[in-house]
Amino acid sequence: MLEIVTNLFNSNNRNMKALKKLVSEIEAKKPEMAEKSFEDFQNRTSEIKQMLSAQENRSFESDSVLLEQLLPETFAMIREAAGRIIGEFTFEEQLMVGIVLHQGGLAEQKTGEGKTHAAVHPTYLNALTGRGAHVVTVNDYLARRDAEWMGPIYHMMGLSVGVINSQNQSFIYEPPIEVSEAAFPLSEEYKNNTGTGKYLKEVTRREAYQCDITYGTNNEFGFDYLRDNMVQKFDQVVQTNALGEFGAHHFVIVDEADSILIDEARTPLIISAPAEESNELYQRLANIFKSLDKGNYDKEAKKVIDGDYAVDEKTKNGIISDIGWKKIAKSLGIEEDVLHSDPSRKFHAQRAADSYAYERDKDYVVKDGEVLIVDSFTGRLMPGRRYSEGLHQALEAKEGVAIQKESKTLATITFQNYFRLYQKLSGMSATIMTEAEEFFKIYELESIAIPTHRPVARVDHSDRIYKHQRAKWKAIVDEIEEINKIGQPILAGTTSVENNELLSNLLKRRSIKHELLNAKNHLREADIVAKAGQKGAVTIATNMAGRGTDIKLGQGVKELGGLHVIGTERHEARRIDNQLRGRSGRQGDPGSSRFFVALDDDLMRIFNGDKIAGLMTRFNLPEDMPIEANIVSKSIENSQKKVESYNFDIRKHLVEYDDVINKQREIIYERRRRLLRASDGDSTSQANIKQQLIDIMVNYARQLLTAAMANPETDIQEVVNELDAFLSLNASDKTSLKEIIDKIGATHDTESVISELVSFIEYRYEAQEKALGNDQMRQIERVILLSTIDYYWMEHIDALDELRYGVRLRAYGQRDPLVEFKNEAFRMFSELLAEIDYEVIHRLFKVKLAQPVPQTSEILDEAQTEHKQIGQFQVDRAEASSRSEETNTDEGHTHEPTVKSEEEKIGRNDPCWCGSGKKYKHCHYPELPA
């Protein structure tokens, strides 16, 4: 570990020297740029774009060489433009951040140092390629605000800006009249309106992506990628760029990179559809658990003490004792061995136990008859998100609210693998360096700490540590009351809604006026946080609510000591504490901070508190006496390191398994992309698909024939029947096939028989093509290929999920679960590809043309988006339909042909042909029945 830290320190010093050299080159161009007009800048933008596009054998590497050469000039141009437009010339430290971002690194720049401004330089430079530059923010408001705030700079440089928000809202920046050279610098009125959408025009999703620069949230970028790999036609793809490239992942800047790339990376993004209902069992188990006794969990013995069940607060799992299982079985009216042999009942019982590891008003709140998740890092409510794998349903049953349907995964990806799609990934945050090792190991990103523009004047006081929370809360209120008397503003950060409201009630008892900000009261978030620096203000906020909003000091506050930050307990991650502290002392302002800790706080109690509590008891220290000792401070730090290490292991574990799935995902998605390119009129892709289908038939027939010729006892008629079932032959063709197969016994020339069979298959394919027509044949091939790939891939995802849980047990047999998963997943994927190939041909030759009618995507209509375990984002049916309508209203659009089998047509609400007992629309639709 020491070696890693030393290497990082030395690397940072080397990088700083290189950065200062480039900054000097940029600064040297100031006089030249001051002489230029905006028209000169726009002309230069056009010249650079043309120079990049005119390259022979253009590639990402060749673009990179040119951009590196252009960096000093373009950064100097943006510096000058920003100074004129927003009245703020970029200072040296911001230029350093911009350089790090352009070079594909992570920059740590302290709170209030102007990261938004710094990001404009590399965004402009990389947008000149025409391949899209994406800027990722943590919420919709910041995406709109940053696009409107920096939009005038891009506009005056000749670039377009798009914004993607949730609820399928998409915009482009449309400058008002006041964005003109005569009106610069921008007025305070303009700046105050940024984030409201006043300067944005609503457009289609694709139009927003085809802008030179696109702002949006990490979830929306990720979900758009998954949706694009579920569409049925190329013109439904949204994630393109100005060059029309499919899946544009050229350059991205991730703001608050630690939050997005680390905190949220513990859980994958999922698009799902409603599955079968089992709500009755959830409610039944919830009622049973209300009658059970909750005990304690002995971590060392790994068993429940004095109860039927307990919870492991560290892993957030429920543990059911042997007695508990007996009681559950009895309440269900079944024998215990029957319960353990029934996966469904056992799963629902385990989920009911797990639900007690999640606390109301801490992990979730109940509002308007819904269970809403609280983001553990920001304290914000996450409406629409749902815990996965039955946990949310178990919570709904526990709380007695309506239980919503479970879901079936259609598509999934982790943030790690989504952001690694980008050819150049970069990011910035005020707290990067504590996670530098993880950034390098997972993303291969180098982290660089940028010095502040002015020295930090904040005073960080030592922690005050108490034996119990009761004494801690009294001390916190005492300090707030004392500081509030002199008018110094106070920001108190809490880790849960419950503690947030507890502190508020304590302050009310002493008649201390304050603003309360938590997941239940978030609508005025930006306004409350922005005013937290006014004289006499007392603000209580959960964790990092308001992140991204500046707290500006009011008149006379600097003389009082600036903003005083109080941390009511230590967070599980050190950088979250640093972020809270960083709200004070921005840009050289005075400020102060202090954390209060009790040894029965969750962090200490779960990870390290017993030893210290024993120490306090031994020395007989009073409850209300704070202690300041190195051993205690070290214990707190060790507790945080334990949690950070534990969470890193979770993320590492997730990405190791998802890397296996990712390789398979890339193969499947590339197949779909080839099909979509063919549907867009790409003749090469069409020819390739035709040849691929013929090859599938030939390979299958060759395998059958080779096996038959190798076995003298082969029944020739069985081979004929097998190929007949595969190719759906008419009587005449079946006779011709039998004549070829009969030659197996008459000749030992395998190749000649196979050659004759190949000719027959090609004839059969061409006959089907002639019957349907060339254009219709291509469209039908695409429909069948896409529906078959999507269905089998969806089933494969579920199978891999089950496998992932199943292989854990193999560790008891001294086998590495990850190696086992890789081997099994490879075998399953090989089988998947073979199944897809067989089903495609099997269905292709059963098709006959019906009346052409418009085709819609049932899957996307009913899809939901989900941030697994953290939750899911609902996608409204009307929104999904509206996107489909937007992309299908061009004049002259040719409707898709519908296809049906030779058997009787099945209605969407009829029982499925496969015998599953499900409705056809929820099972094999839009596949063709066999």
TrEMBL record:
It is found in: Cell membrane; Cytoplasm; Membrane. It is an enzyme of class 7 (translocase). One of its GO terms (biological process) is intracellular protein transmembrane transport. GO terms for molecular function: ATP binding; metal ion binding; protein-exporting ATPase activity. The keyword Ribosomal protein does not apply. It is a peripheral membrane protein. Part of the Sec protein translocase complex. Interacts with the SecYEG preprotein conducting channel. Has a central role in coupling the hydrolysis of ATP to the transfer of proteins into and across the cell membrane, serving as an ATP-driven molecular motor driving the stepwise translocation of polypeptide chains across the membrane. Monomer and homodimer. Part of the essential Sec protein translocation apparatus which comprises SecA, SecYEG and auxiliary proteins SecDF. Other proteins may also be involved. This is Protein translocase subunit SecA. It comes from candidate division WWE3 bacterium. The lineage of its organism: Bacteria, Katanobacteria. The gene is secA.
